[in-house]
Design brief:
Layout lengths: L1 H8 L1 H18 L1 H4 L18 E2 L6 E2 L10 H37 L1 H15 L3 H12 L3 H27 L3 H8 L4 H37 L11 H8 L8 H28 L1
Antiparallel strand pairs: 1-2
Helix pairs in contact: 2-4, 2-11, 4-5, 4-7, 4-9, 5-7, 6-7, 7-9, 8-9, 9-10, 9-11, 10-11
Amino acid sequence: MNNKSLLRGNTKGVVSIVSLSVIFVVTMFAPLFAPFDPYKQSLQDIFIAPFNAFNSHEGISLLGTDQLGRDVLSRLLYGGRLSLWMSILAVVISGVFGSIIGIIAGYYGGKIDALLMRLADIQMSIPSMLLAIVMVAVLGSGLTNIVIVLSITGWVTFARVVRSQVLSLRELEYVQAAQAMGVPNVAVMRRHIFPNTFYTIVTQAALQMSRMILLAASLSFLGLGIDVSTPSWGGMINDGRSYISSAWWLSTLPGLVIAFVILSINLLSDWLREKAQ
């Protein structure tokens, strides 16, 4: 009975973790799971519908081919690997930077807090998509620049969430006792403040992951992401929008994959938030 109750309480977490684990494995190891070369073009195989055989060679295209005869499933796997790597790196960088800013602002308070939070307010006043477009226009496209852009647009959320928790943590007795004993501020933040904000940071990172994936896909859709010849989920949606009436799978399938990944991540973040309460 207890095991059943435990399972019911963790169903959301189990489903999301299993789903994300499968997605992570098949995309990160795309060369092992992709049935065909995602870059190989064949004019004899253009617009093959899902679950139909190729015309130029043996084999079945499970998710169809695009306007250049490239296998959609293979491109989805390779595009997912790139999208996930960019999002993970952006979340790690923005999470580390934003958490440090939040801990410093919440711990010291006063003018330091006011200055850092006003900078955060200024950035929050600018729509993330607009800021990303402007930064890509200035820095240029490419994998490194996209990661930098995503990181800069994401640090504010970490900073504000962590700061709000640190404001209450710094008033706890054991923190004030450490300060009274002359423990350096950096040591207090490292030993007492950060460990108590770690779970909040992880929860926020899970939530930000879905935002990063969606923002990266949006930039690729607008042609501002990585090179157009490189498979990406947003780029695949953009490539297929001109053929939506005749080849629905070109845009629909990448869109469904993005929706499924974001839904799984949101379920995981909700489960983590419930556990933290």
